[in-house]
Amino acid sequence: MKKLLILAVLLLAIMIPVTAADTNGKDFGVGLYLGSPLGITAKYDLDEELSVVGGLGFGGSALIINGGVQYNFIDFSIEDLDFNVYFGGNVNIKFGGTPSFNLGIEVPVGISYYFKDPAIEVFLEVGPTFNFISLTADAVGGIGARYEFDG
To answer: pTM for the whole thing?
Structure first.
């Protein structure tokens, strides 16, 4: 019961800033992430360059919750195809596996493409992660897609 309460509090800590923000016409996206971890992903664009991201999924035998910021530093187009290159900093919390609890940071780098109709962002990212409790390093990465809602 105690672990379930901690999980609920952590989920709220990640999702409340995203959902409570005044959208002012900004985009909010929700979708799937296929990789490490495998799960759901959410993103809220604070402005053209900065976004808040979060996710909930499974990696190995662990439940992983992550959240952080993403800096969109290069936008470019190739024949009307809009791309964005970004990097970020996330905190991740793992429940289960060995050890049964772990806390770490991730530094993903990725590229995304935006479909106009329907409003879907498709992205590919990879990056290192460092786990503080187990003192191990890993890699995160995968592909994902988010449906974007206008606020």
So the answer is: 0.79
